[in-house]
Amino acid sequence: MCGIAGYHGGNIAPERAADYLRRMVAALRHRGPDAEGIVIRGDTGLAHSRLSIVGLADGAQPMESEDETLAVSFNGEIFNYVELRDDLKARGHRFRTTSDTEVLLAGYAEKGLDCLADFNGDFAFALHDERARTLVLARDRMGVRPLFYTQHDGALFFASEIKALLALPGMTAEIDPLALDQIFTLWCPIPPRTAYRNIHELPPGHLMIVADDRRTIRPWWQLSYPDRKDAPPADSMDDQTEALRALLDDATRIRLRADVPVGAYLSGGLDSSLIAALAAKTVTHGLKTFSLTFRSAEHDESAWQRQMAASLGVLSDSVECTMETIAEHLPQVMRHIECPILRTAPVPLALLSARVREQGMKVVLTGEGADEIFAGYDLFREARVRRFCGRQPESPRRPRLFQRLYPYLPGLKQQSPEYLARFFAFGAEALDDPLYSHRPRFRSTAAAKLFFSADLRQDIGDYDAAADLAAQLPADFRRWHPLHQAQYLETAFLLPGYILSSQGDRVMMANAVEGRFPFLDHRVVAFAAGLSPDAKLNGLREKHILKQAARGLVPAAIIDRPKQPYRAPDSEVFAGPATPACLDDALSQERLAQSGLFNVQAVGKLKEKVLKGQVTGFRDNAAFIGILSTELLRGPSAARPHLASSEIGKH
Fold it and tell me: What is the pLDDT of residues 295-325, one digit of tens each?
C-alpha cells in the first residue's frame, strides 16, 4: 500500500518536473512513510511514497523493468502474486525482487493489458511503456484504491489523493455544484466527477491509455448479473454453501500474505466475525483484532465483539469513541476524505486505524462488501416489502412490516400506517423504475437540499442527479432480477464512492494502514452475483447463504442476531455548552455568505437546533453534517464556485 503520483506530457523542464513530483509525493507521505522515490522518463514522471508490506528490502518504487523499457508506480497489492510469479518464471521471466510490483511489470511485458484479468488484488497504478510511448493508468475492479487526475500546466497529472494535485503551483480547489447535488442525493459523486471542479476520478475497473496526447478511458472489468429468466434456482444449497466457504477461505488466506503482521477489524457482526474466524485458522502466532465501542447503546456492539474474540481465543483491542472525540477530529478527517459526507461514521474508523498503527501494525482484514454482494442491507428487504405492499397499497396492515425491518430505529415504531405508507411511497412509484429500490433513500437525502442557497440552485438548474445515475446503468440492467438491480446500485456506486473511500482507504491510509477485503475478491463477487436471489435474500432473511457458510465458525448467537448496521452519533456530537471551535468558524455567517453555497439564515437556525440537541430526523442530521463537512473542505479562503451552463448534465 502506498501513494502514487506523476504526470505525462506538457514539455515540462526536468528541474521543474522534479519539483512537481517532490511536492506531490510530500503531500502523500501519510500513505507511505517508509520511503519515497521519483523517476523522470522523457515526457513522463512517476513518484511514489511507500508503505512497505511485501518485499520489504527490495520493493522500492517507482520500479523499472530490467531492460528499462517499462516503469511503474503501484499502489496496493496483487494477492496472487506468488502463483503468477511461478507461472511467469515458467515462461522465461527472471525476477530480481520478491515484490508483487515486479510481477505486475512482468505480467504486462508478457500479456500487455490482458494481464489485468490475471490480477487478484486491490490496486491503482501508473505504468509507462517507453517502446509503445504510452502511459497506462488502471484501477482495481471494485474501486478499493483511489486514483485522481487533472489537466494542468499543459500536462496530465495524476495521484492517489486530490491533495497531491493541489500541491502543484497554481492549482486551486473549487467545489463543483453538480457534485454537491449528487452528494446531497446519492451520498457520493458519480465518477469521473469529484467534489472539485476540473479534478476527476478514474472509475473502478477502468483504465486510461495516453498515447500521442490522446486519452482513451474504458472499462477492463464490469459487474454483471444473469438475466432474470436465467437466474438459477436456489437449489443445491449445501453444495453452494460449501463452495462459498472454500472461496472465502482462499480469499482470506491470500490476503494474509505480507512480510508484516496482519490483524482484523471485529465489529461484532457476522461479516467481520466470519473473516476473523477464517483468518484465525491461518495466523498461527495469534490474530489480533481491533474494535470500536460507543457509550450509546444504539451504536455500541462491544458485547458481541467480546463474545467473538473469546470464541476465537484471540487478542482484542478496542477504541471507545465519545461524542467529544468525533466532534474534535472531524476537521482533520475531512482533510483526508476530500469529499463532503452526510454522516460522521468515517471519524471513528479513522480513530480505529490510528489505534492499529499505534500497535505497530500496517495491515487489517475487514468485512466490507458482504452486505452489498450477499444482500445484507435493510434497503434490499425494504424494496421487497415495498413491492409486496404496492400490490395492495390500501392495506392498513402491510405498512407495519417496515417496523420489523428497522428494530434499531425506535422512532419508526411510533409512526402510523398512513405515515409509513407515505414515507416508503409504495404504490406511488413505477415498479419498472430502474432506481425503484433506492428512491426512498434518494428522496430522504435530497430533502437536505432545502438548505442550498438560491445561487447554488440557479447554478444547478434542472440537473437531476438520480436521472444522471440512471442514464449510466448497463444496457442489460433492466433484464436483471429486481434484487440484482438494487445490488448493482449499491455495489457499483455507493460501495466505491463512499464505503471504500470515505469510510475505507482514506481514513485507513491517513494512518498508513492498509485494509484488505476478502469479500471483494473478484471470485467471491462473481460467485455471489451468479446465485439465485433467494439464496441471498430468503424471504426477509438477509445474507441467507452466507449465514449458512458461517455455521461452525461463528457463534450462532452472532449469526442469528438482528442486524445492526455500523453507525455513529451525528449532529448530537455538537450539542452541549462547549461548542467546538470548528463549528463557529466553518458555519459563521461571514463564512457561509462568502461561500454562497448554503442559505445563511436557514443554516443558522439549524445550527441553533443542533446546539440545543433538538435535531432528531434524518434530513436535518444529514443536512447539518453535509453542510459542515462541505465548509470544512472548502476552507476559509476558497472562492465561491460558478457553474458554466455548458457543464450542466456533464460529469
Answer: 988 899 999 999 999 999 988 899 999 999 9
